[in-house]
Amino acid sequence: MKNVIYGTLFLVIALSVACASGRVQSGEGLLSAAGPSKRSARPEEIAPEYLLGPGDVIQVTFYEAKGYMPSVKQTEAATVRQDGMVFLRLLGDIKAAGLTSGQLTNRIEERLREYIRNPVVVVEIKEYHSQKVTVFGQAKNGIYTLDHPTYISEFIASIGGVGNRADQTKIKVTREDNSVVVINLKGYYENGDLSQNILLRGGDQMFIPIKETPWAWRYFMNWQSVATGILLSLSVYLAIFGR
After folding, report:
1. I need a surface site. Which of 74, 120, 126, 243 has the fewest CB within 10 A?
2. CATH number of the domain encompassing residue 84
């Protein structure tokens, strides 16, 4: 009787060690998010320019064009306020939030024409603070700042990839308007499905779920745990009272 029990116990323990080894070999760390080898961006879609928002810092340089030698008039830095405005000493408040640097340049030039005959303006973004993406789930959780138009595959790679247990077929991106986009990023990586490689927006919240365990494996693991518990109890009993 003892030989049968010990033999069964050895078999169960061996199976447990093998399963654990398989899990260790598969790794619980982060996977590098490598995209498809030949396609890296949508040829039919041009990424939009960065839109200014509260907290962004810009530098504005004013020129007055005189022939071929423009003369520098003024350079100043300004921060986009929570109301979306920036203050420039020459013009006062001017709306910047929601505009690209090029659109803001045109707006400033229009205002300057009231004072300068041939104004030339250069707007540079010096610090990026407004466009943020929040990540939850099977990746490095946190709040990340976008400093340029970013595709989801590039973004995930930049934060270290996703975990081995991540389900990349059901990534949920919740937009600021509460709409939800479900992304099958695995389809992009494996098949080059460009429709799944969306551009992220400021305010997006990304949830990367855990991969569901197949029911057969769950059933086996449950029975394995029960059998292990019973046999360990029997071993203890025999060790104490079996002599």
Report:
1. 243
2. 3.30.1950.10
Kind and range of the H or E run holding 76: strand 71-79
* Reduced 3-state DSSP string for 183-219: ECHHHHHHHCCHHHCCECCCCCEEEECECCCCHHHHH
Enumerate residues 6+ apart whose C-beta is below 8 A from 234.
5, 9
Under 8 Å between Cβ of 183 and 171: yes
Same domain, 135 and 197: yes
Whole-angstrom distance, CA of residue 197 vs CA of residue 132: 18
pTM above 0.85, yes or no: no
Q: What string of pLDDT tens digits covers the 243 residues of the chain?
A: 544 444 444 444 444 544 443 333 333 334 434 444 333 334 334 457 889 999 999 999 988 776 555 566 789 999 999 999 999 988 999 999 999 999 999 999 999 888 888 888 999 999 999 999 999 999 999 999 998 889 999 999 999 999 889 999 999 999 999 999 999 999 999 999 999 999 999 999 999 999 876 655 555 556 566 566 666 666 665 667 665
> CB–CB of 242/3 below 8 Å?
no
Domain that holds residue 12: 2-21+215-241
In this structure, the answer to whether residues 234 and 186 fall within a common structural domain is: no
Angle at 237 between CA 2 and CA 17, to 5 degrees: 70
Q: Classify residue 205 by burial, with Cβ atoms within 10 Å: 0-12, 13-18, 19+.
A: middle
What tokens does 70 get?
């423009």
